[in-house]
UniProtKB/TrEMBL annotation:
SUPFAM superfamilies: alpha/beta-Hydrolases. It comes from Rostratula benghalensis (greater painted-snipe). It holds the Pfam family DLH. InterPro entries: AB_hydrolase_fold, CMBL, Dienelactn_hydro. This is Carboxymethylenebutenolidase homolog.
């Protein structure tokens, strides 16, 4: 039984009733969801899912939104067939579950997806966005792969000991003011490290009154007061990619 007093990250919000406009493909050893824009393009974005996995309708909605804005969008299964977290799972076992799905150990999957985008989709300009667990993955990839010309990390969990200032290319960090899982002092510490050490463009932005997962886990038609910030977060994500990819 889930621990209702302390839901796991991303339980705040809604599961969208959304089917997706793209298709599922096999990319070497993993599956992926791909959505392409109406016109041909050499710009592509890897969309990295949260703890609920690559099939979550919310994440596919984000991929389709990027495709609508002119990008080939691909959301691979970075859990490599392992079960995603479910809202009904026991929160007390979350840490053990997460240890078997390390967001910093995804190079094999990233290599396969990059090869697919370059060879099968003729992609030349690449970006990456990620939500929650995927936000942590973005931190890792933006310090490891110079191919990614821009990254957007949405409420990626950070620790006081984390230092992501060794970024290779421009990265945008989106945080929520009322995130129960990412205290604001950690965001401040991140900003201080970036200001001191980062040699590429970056931005850290905190959205007032928002909670963890707001950009992809809140429905703007349910919470009118949140709508401007949900839309702003999505627009900021796309604008950052448009600027650098």
């Amino acid at each position: 039984m889930a621990n209702e007093s302390r839901p796991c990250p991303c339980d705040v919000g809604d599961r969208f009733d959304y089917g997706g406009r793209g298709q599922e493909v096999q990319v070497e050893h993993i599956k992926a969801y791909v959505c392409k824009p109406p016109a041909s393009t050499d710009r592509a974005v890897i969309v990295i899912h949260d703890i609920f996995g690559w099939q979550l309708p919310n994440t596919r909605y984000m991929a389709d939104m990027l495709a609508t804005n002119g990008y080939i969008a691909i959301c691979p299964d970075f859990f490599v067939g392992k079960e995603p977290w479910k809202p009904s799972d026991d929160w007390s076992k979350f840490d053990d579950w997460r240890k078997t799905r390390d967001a910093r150990k995804i190079n094999k999957e990233a290599d396969a997806v990059l090869k697919y985008l370059k060879e099968q989709c003729a992609a030349k300009k690449l970006g990456v966005v990620g939500f929650c667990w995927g936000g942590v993955a973005v931190h890792h990839l933006m310090m490891t792969y110079p191919e990614f010309k821009a990254g957007v990390s949405l409420y990626g969990l950070i620790k006081d000991s984390d230092d992501v200032s060794n970024l290779l290319n421009p990265t945008f960090f989106i945080f929520a003011e009322k995130d129960d899982f990412i205290p604001l002092h950690q965001v401040t510490l991140l900003e201080e490290k970036l200001k001191r050490n980062c040699e590429v463009d970056y931005e850290v932005k905190i959205y007032p009154g928002q909670t963890h997962g707001f950009v992809h886990r809140k429905r703007e038609d349910i919470s009118p007061q949140d709508k401007p910030y949900i839309e702003e977060g999505r627009k900021d994500m796309i604008n950052w990619l448009n600027k650098y990819v």
